[in-house]
């Protein structure tokens, strides 16, 4: 599975436009260059018509279908059924499926899943589709046929640009968000916000090559950890919600620790249970409703983004007490909820 593919293309370069330095497909104006000033609009248009054609090989972010199959060992003669086909960037498929199952609320308990495995590839309209099989625990009460009859379109197809495609009702998603536990609600210094954004960019390898991939990074907000600006993990995908699902799926044990103490551990008055740290995410995209909904499902307390939030994202973040900040640039941060948490 390749995350980057190479295609022969024709690049048009204006011989009169300012030059750019390039890292992969990320373009930045070269230092010291200024646009021509004082030119009439007609003259500017004439200059822009002058260009050079270059045949080159360009690197493009991969997008391929992933089929998610589901089977129950004691139902349908243990025959697998197709749950959905989703479009995503290849890689981290197991984490993607784990994260999606959790954030979509399809399974009430992670113990319902016995294992998730790759089962090879198939063909979808001439294209290769990787296949992942989710095997439920024998005691799981998950009923795929009941879900299909009640939610039909939700479990057929999800494209890489939509995180809530096919849901019958927004209320279905909202009802599945767990009650928010009282957390430390740690504050974050503005310098650390800029550092987190810079760290995410530096670890987006596919974006550096293609300019066509979203990134999501996980960081710790707990008081026991002083280096808040360090990223625990980074995942990439052509879909912003996929990148977040990959991140959540790969780190479920951190984000959703067992509520009961580990075997052999004792909780006494002299030695109370250590409080789990709070986590936040930094993303390269905008903050839409589905991003906040997934964050709430995974007990995320802070969402930082390069882009803008939507109105529904802000309203949901307010309801879930999640701090969201957007438009993180070189010298500004827009804090939309819980502004006291970024100082």
Note down, in words, how this protein is organized.
The protein has 343 residues and is of the alpha/beta class. 25% of the residues lie in helices and 29% in strands. It has 10 helices and 15 strands. The strands form 4 sheets. A 6-stranded mixed β-sheet has the order 11-10-12-13-14-15, sandwiched between helices. A 5-stranded mixed β-sheet has the order 7-8-5-6-9, with helices on one face. A hairpin with a 2-residue loop joins strand 7 and strand 8. Helix 2 packs across helix 7, helix 7 packs parallel to helix 9 and helix 9 runs parallel beside helix 10. About 6% of the residues have low confidence.
Structural descriptors:
5-stranded mixed beta sheet; 6-stranded mixed beta sheet; 10 helices; alpha/beta; 29% strand
Tell me the span between the first and last alpha carbons.
43 Å
> What is the helix tally?
10
Our estimate of the beta-strand percent is: 25-35%
> How does the major sheet shape up?
6 strands, mixed
Strand segment tally: 15
Helical proportion? 25-40%
How would you sum up the global shape? Answer: flat
User: Which strand order does the major sheet show?
Assistant: 11-10-12-13-14-15
User: What would you call the structural class?
Assistant: alpha/beta
Taking pLDDT < 50 over at least 5 consecutive residues as the criterion, the unreliable ranges are 32-36, 259-272
Using only CA atoms, what is the Rg?
A: 23 Å
Integer average pLDDT? 80
Question: Helix and strand string, N-terminal first?
Answer: EEEHEEEHEEHEHHHEEHHEHEHEE
